[in-house]
């Protein structure tokens, strides 16, 4: 006899103020096979990707669509081919965009994109971390090619983080500081500027003003690296002017307009995209790197080098609280991460 579980999902893509935009559901409890883990979900976090996927569109679903790409929980069962985890292990992960999300009592996830939960954090604080940590780590250490371990190599190098107070910026600032870089963050409000400084930014500039004059006031002619976490097209000209010759720019924000890559030509500057779902979406041979980096982040957390970015916690995990969390995210003014705990 099949068992059921609680979940929050949707059939129609609606504005968040409509009750049917996210619904409390009972769905079939899945079983793991292959390299999948069945995880008992303890806490989840919301991200801009949840809002993007849920955004109003005419499409309707025959089976409920479950969102949620930040989970902390306990391994309940393992598939036959699993080698990294066993039942009872405490884990955290972001999951895959091409599978059901984690807003359910139990969730299937490939073990190669799962990390051991930081031992020093509870489930709620841990759930704030996976998606933003993977994005920040891949952006800095893989796309931008910054060394994660050689502080001497990074000494004197500068990183500009556009949108430093958000979820990814909060982790990227901490990782970059640990790696030995000088971090300049952009923020638009005093509250977000204070938060970004608390997360490790050495300096704050405004992303509503030209970058170069502000950098010059800090004694910097240009920056070696730029990590763009906010409106790529709006900041494109500013980034092209601020990047050093042979510097590198990475963005996580898709554009509505064409980017003029010619602006980077004379500087031989590099531009790269970072999308943390690439590995799981295309089942790349190096998928296990997300398992490895989540374990590294957990070690940094447990060593007191990085801290969780949870700023708000809602309980329990249900449609009403998830609608509330989505509405807060849609204001574009949230600082840190919103977490939901317990079904």
From TrEMBL:
What GO molecular functions are on record for this protein?
Answer: oxidoreductase activity; RNA binding; zinc ion binding
Tell where it localizes: Cytoplasm
Coiled-coil region: none
Looking at the record, the residues that make up the Enoyl reductase (ER) domain are: 20-340
What cellular component terms from Gene Ontology apply here?
cytoplasm
Q: Which domain of life is it from?
A: Bacteria
Keyword Flavoprotein, does the record have it? Answer: no
What SMART domains does the entry give? Answer: PKS_ER
Note one Pfam family from the annotation: ADH_zinc_N_2
Q: Which InterPro entries does the annotation name?
A: ADH-like_N, ADH_Zn_typ-1, ER, GroES-like_sf, NAD(P)-bd_dom_sf, Quin_OxRdtase/zeta-crystal_CS, Zinc-ADH_QOR/CCCR
Annotated keywords: Cytoplasm, Metal-binding, NADP, Oxidoreductase, RNA-binding, Zinc
Checking Gene3D superfamilies in the record gives: Medium-chain alcohol dehydrogenases, catalytic domain (3.90.180.10), NAD(P)-binding Rossmann-like Domain (3.40.50.720)
The main location class comes to cytoplasm
* Self-association and partners: Homotetramer.
Q: Which family does it belong to?
A: Belongs to the zinc-containing alcohol dehydrogenase family. Quinone oxidoreductase subfamily.
Checking NCBIfam families in the record gives: adh_fam_1
Could you identify this protein by its name?
A: Zinc-type alcohol dehydrogenase-like protein
């Amino acid at each position: 006899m099949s068992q059921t579980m609680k979940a929050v999902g949707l059939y129609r893509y609606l504005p968040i103020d409509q009750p049917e935009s996210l619904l409390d559901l009972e769905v079939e409890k899945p079983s793991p096979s292959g390299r999948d883990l069945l995880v008992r979900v303890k806490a989840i976090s919301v991200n801009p990707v949840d809002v993007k996927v849920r955004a109003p569109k005419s499409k309707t679903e025959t089976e409920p669509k479950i969102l949620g790409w930040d989970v902390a929980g306990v391994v309940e069962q393992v598939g036959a081919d699993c080698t990294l985890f066993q039942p009872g292990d405490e884990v955290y992960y972001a999951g895959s965009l091409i599978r059901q999300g984690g807003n359910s009592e139990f969730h299937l996830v490939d073990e190669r994109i799962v990390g051991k939960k930081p031992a020093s954090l509870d489930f709620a604080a841990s759930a704030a971390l996976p998606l933003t940590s993977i994005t920040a780590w891949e952006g800095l250490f893989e796309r931008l090619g910054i060394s994660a371990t050689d502080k001497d190599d990074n000494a004197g190098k500068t990183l500009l983080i556009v949108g430093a107070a958000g979820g990814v910026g909060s982790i990227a600032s901490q990782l970059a500081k640990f790696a030995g870089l000088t971090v300049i963050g952009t923020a638009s409000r005093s509250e977000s500027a204070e938060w970004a400084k608390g997360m490790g930014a050495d300096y704050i500039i405004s992303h509503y003003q030209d970058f170069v004059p502000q950098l010059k006031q800090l004694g910097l002619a240009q920056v070696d690296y730029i990590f763009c976490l906010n409106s790529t097209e709006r900041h494109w000209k500013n980034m092209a002017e601020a990047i050093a010759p042979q510097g590198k720019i990475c963005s996580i924000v898709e554009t509505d307009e064409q980017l003029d890559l010619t602006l980077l030509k004379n500087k031989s500057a590099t531009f790269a995209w970072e999308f943390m779902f690439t590995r799981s979406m295309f089942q790349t041979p190096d998928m296990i790197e997300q398992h490895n980096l989540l374990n590294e982040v957990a070690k940094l957390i447990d060593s007191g080098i990085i801290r969780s970015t949870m700023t708000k916690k809602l309980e329990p995990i249900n449609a009403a609280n998830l609608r509330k969390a989505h509405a807060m995210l849609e204001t574009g003014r949230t600082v840190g991460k919103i977490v939901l705990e317990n079904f």
